[in-house]
Design brief:
The complex is a heterodimer of chains A (262) and B (411).
Chain A lengths: L2 E12 L2 E12 L3 E5 L6 H8 L7 E6 L7 E2 L5 H6 L2 E3 L12 H9 L7 H6 L2 H21 L14 H13 L5 E5 L7 H18 L2 E5 L3 H7 L2 E6 L2 E6 L1 H6 L1 H8 L6
Parallel strand pairs in A: 3-8, 3-9, 6-7, 7-8
Antiparallel strand pairs in A: 1-2, 1-4, 4-5, 9-10
Helix pairs in contact in A: 3-5, 3-6, 5-6
Chain B lengths: L3 H23 E4 L4 E4 L1 H34 L2 H4 L2 H7 L1 H21 L2 H26 L8 H18 L3 H20 L7 H21 L1 H4 L20 H27 L2 H11 L1 H6 L4 H27 L9 H14 L4 H17 L7 H15 L27
Antiparallel strand pairs in B: 1-2
The chains are: A alpha/beta (262), B mainly alpha (411).
């Protein structure tokens, strides 16, 4: 299978703190990859580096979108990264609270639209058609994610689980080939987590996107992922299939601590 | 109803107010007779007045709390104000609008030049408010130096006319373009700033422009300003004073309608959505593929355009400008218009401007207490209607089935 994201030697220093230390990671087409590690291991920093929110101190990042040339995304601004087909969600929900569910998704379509100031003022045919199309496209995305019942609600009025799913819907609206999910199951109950599990698989199958997720819910991680990367203190300590990771002594040590023999 | 504890509370309130106002309301030193007057009657008035007002205050507060609870419980219609009900029903607001249109057309022929002039000034502030509304209300960028763009517009007409004899009609688009240019000029350094920091930098920018105009004598003729700026002609007609005032009035009506039209369309477009998203969450906005730089700069530029345009009109209306017309106070008034009217709401801003500009004019009869009433109105408004007179009921995009039709509710 074709590799769509390659991260080489990614290092991120905040002053004297080394948040990420020479991390390598790769994702193939239609693969679900999990990034796990104890709290403060540098998982979200890794996301922020890839999506352009932090400029990494060192390292290279390449994407090979399906049907397009391999290209470096280092030094691109967050919106340019998104335009290139990487979309993300946030650990602490960052929806546009005072906009409706539909509008949230429409914002995701923004970078795939083209009308400018003149179009907005003159409201010419192209603009009107684009606006009508974006409403329909957004609704179809909401249907896929199972949020169509909330379409005209304000985002802030949604139940927690639905807000998490709306973040995914909004990210999908940008037409990504790789979806980065930062703790999508955080705060969800068992039933919601199970629905999320199915949703992620469904997105991968129907949209043909790859998924990189950060998650603490091990049951979800083990059932979903094709491969797992484990980081601790900014270093990659293991990678492999779920079964391998479960048995890996280094990983167990990182999570549970060392046996302390007196 | 009125319980003992409430009476007790009100009693203490009135005692407190009597104590507070004692030095100004009761004691008066008469320097001619070298005596101190004790106006005990005033003390009584303050006491009784604050006693009764505290009941009204408490009643209003209770009503507000009740409204909030209702809203939380999910009663949607209960939270809607009188204005929103009117605005949602075309049968009610259409005749209302036609009435206002006739009134506006007839205004200069019914009332005196003085009244027409006041109304023109009010319309100038409506336009300024609408422009600032783009920056503050929609994009959420607190701009305290907005008056700078107004000054840019006014001086661009005054100077271009003085040196090159440019006509008003040519200066109007040039003023607007220069306003937009200065908007971008201010926008670049403040791209990274937010909230308080942004407010301070924009405040500084506004002052810089004013101070330059005040001190660069060779360029702007300093504090003495520029006089004899010609009023606009129309198809070569020279107006009398009466005619010119009426003409300025209608010109402002047309420009205001144009502004409302454009701002409304911008608000309900791809760009308008991006501004609102930027206000809601900057990081998420960027992560969703919106170019923060471009979006912020268009907000600054499009906001400043109106100030530049209306600055040209201002220069032509007063025929004399100097830097004293462009102080921080003006910026604050414009910001008050936006906040009081309702951030992000076009109709709210129109109301806000009319209230804030017309109220002080018609309160001239009580000139001593004018600013006091003005301040009190502002405070009471912010306590009881923090969203503004007509809080923004944004026309949200609603989905009504797969035909792509949208329900156009709201403002």
């Amino acid at each position: 299978m074709k590799t769509i994201l390659e991260v080489k030697n990614l290092t991120m220093n905040f002053g004297g703190l080394c948040a990420l230390d020479r991390i390598d990671l790769d994702i193939s087409e239609r693969e679900i990859v999990a990034l796990i590690g104890p709290n403060g291991a540098g998982k979200t920093t890794f996301f922020n580096c890839i999506t352009g929110i932090f400029p990494p101190t060192e390292g290279e990042m390449f994407i090979s979108p399906p049907g397009k040339q391999r290209k470096s995304i280092k030094g691109l601004k967050p919106n340019q990264v998104t335009e290139n087909g990487l979309a993300r969600t946030f650990q602490n929900i960052r929806l546009f609270q005072n906009m409706t569910v539909l509008e949230n998704v429409m914002i995701g379509r923004h970078c795939r639209m083209s009308s400018g100031i003149a179009g907005a003022v003159l409201r010419n045919r192209a603009t009107v058609e684009e606006e009508e199309a974006v409403v329909e496209e957004s609704y179809i995305i909401l249907q896929k994610i199972g949020l169509s019942e909330y379409v005209n609600e304000f985002a802030k009025n949604l139940p927690y689980g639905a807000q998490r799913r709306l973040e995914i819907a909004r990210a999908l609206a940008t037409e990504p080939f790789l979806l980065l999910l930062d703790e999508p199951a955080a705060g969800m109950n068992l039933r919601e987590t199970k629905e999320l599990d199915e949703l992620i698989v469904r997105i991968r199958d129907s949209e043909g996107v790859s998924i990189l997720l950060i998650e603490h819910d091990m049951k979800l991680v083990m059932s979903l992922s094709d491969r797992i990367f484990v980081v601790d203190y900014g270093k990659k300590i293991a990678q492999g299939k779920p079964e391998e990771i479960q048995k890996n002594p280094v990983v167990i040590k990182a999570y549970l601590g060392e046996d302390f023999d007196a | 109803m009125i319980t003992l504890p409430e009476i007790k509370k009100s009693f203490f309130v009135s005692l407190w107010f009597m104590f507070l106002t004692f030095p100004i309301m009761v004691v008066r030193v008469n320097p001619i007779e070298k005596a101190v007057e004790w106006r005990w009657k005033n003390l009584l008035l303050v006491g009784v007045g604050s006693f009764l007002l505290s009941f009204v205050w408490r009643y209003l507060f209770k009503r507000k709390e009740a409204g909030k609870k209702k809203e939380e419980a999910g009663y949607d219609s209960g939270a809607k104000s009188f204005f929103h009900i009117i605005l949602a029903e075309p049968k009610i607001y259409k005749p209302f609008l036609i009435g206002i249109a006739f009134f506006a057309l007839a205004f200069p022929f019914i009332f005196s030049i003085y009244q027409t002039n006041i109304m023109t000034t009010a319309l100038i502030y409506v336009m300024l408010g609408l422009g600032l509304n783009i920056v503050v209300g929609l994009a959420g960028l607190l701009d305290l130096g907005y008056v700078a763009f107004y000054a840019v517009g006014a001086y661009s007409y005054a100077l271009l006319n003085y040196h090159f004899g440019l006509s008003f009609w040519l200066a109007l688009p040039i003023g607007a373009a220069l306003g937009a240019f200065f908007g971008i000029l201010l926008g670049f350094p403040v791209l990274r700033l937010r909230g308080d920091y942004l407010a301070i930098v924009t405040l500084g920018f506004g002052e810089i422009i004013r101070i330059i105009l005040e001190n660069w004598n060779e360029f702007s003729f300093g504090p003495s300003g520029i006089a004899n700026i010609p009023r606009p002609g129309f198809l070569g007609i020279e107006f009398s004073l009466q005619g010119a005032t009426t003409f300025m009035y209608f010109l402002m009506i047309v420009l205001t309608l144009f502004t409302v039209f454009v701002v409304n369309r911008l608000q309900n477009s791809r760009i308008g959505r991006a501004w609102i998203a930027l206000r809601e969450d900057e990081i998420a906005c960027q992560a969703m593929g919106i170019d923060k730089t471009k979006t912020k700069l268009t907000a600054f530029a499009l906001g400043a355009t109106w100030a530049g345009m209306v600055g040209v009109v201002f220069a032509a209306k007063t025929t004399f400008i100097n830097p004293a017309s462009f102080t921080v106070w003006e910026s604050i008034i414009i910001l008050c218009i936006v906040v009081l009217g309702g951030m992000g709401s076009v109709i709210g801003v129109v109301f806000g401007a009319l209230i804030l500009i017309l109220l002080p004019e018609y309160l001239r009869a009580f000139s001593e207490y004018r600013m006091l009433i003005f301040g009190a109105v502002l405070i009471i408004m912010m306590v009881f209607r923090p969203g503004g007179v007509i809080s923004s009921v944004r026309r949200t995009y609603r989905f009504e089935g797969l035909t792509g039709k949208r329900d156009k509710t709201g403002i």
